[in-house]
Amino acid sequence: MTDGSDEFRLVSPPIDKEGKLPRKYTGEGQGAKKNLSPPLEWYNMPEGTKSLALIVQDLDGGEPDGPMMPWAHWVVINIPPTLKGLPEGFSGKEEDMGGDYAGIKEGNNDWKIPGWSGPMLPPPVHSHGHRFEFKLYALDDQLHLGNKVTKDKVLEAIEGHVLGEAVLMATF
């Protein structure tokens, strides 16, 4: 039996134990900072990890008048294994931060724009409780996907290269 202390895991300190994504990381309401990405930390990366890829999606998303389907809010690849997390507001700043952050690439989300886009509930469905999944993949290689990185391209490229997955669930 393992107590889970050595499992590959992903956490975001501001997400409380109820799993609510704080409003400042969303795109709506009072206190929303408009596309401020939340801080993330990870632990117990699998041995042999050469890079990390992150896909964040609203599992209850989709177009307002279309079927419900996972909707990507953030796609990040080539996170070096030397990093133990991404700071708050990281999205869009990898060049400014330099060092190990400089090689990280943010792909396009499902709005077809690069970087983090905070969740907003489409009117008229202001029903909260969307499930928001942060999934971090430990890979045995770097990804070379050219300029246009998307969730689908990443999922295709990592096939056969995943050493481990860490999932953090939140709701908004």
Automatic annotation (TrEMBL):
Pfam families: PBP. Residues 1-40 are annotated as: Disordered. It comes from the Eukaryota. PANTHER family: PEBP (PHOSPHATIDYLETHANOLAMINE-BINDING PROTEIN) FAMILY PROTEIN (PTHR30289:SF1), UNCHARACTERIZED PROTEIN YBCL-RELATED (PTHR30289). This is OLC1v1033668C1.
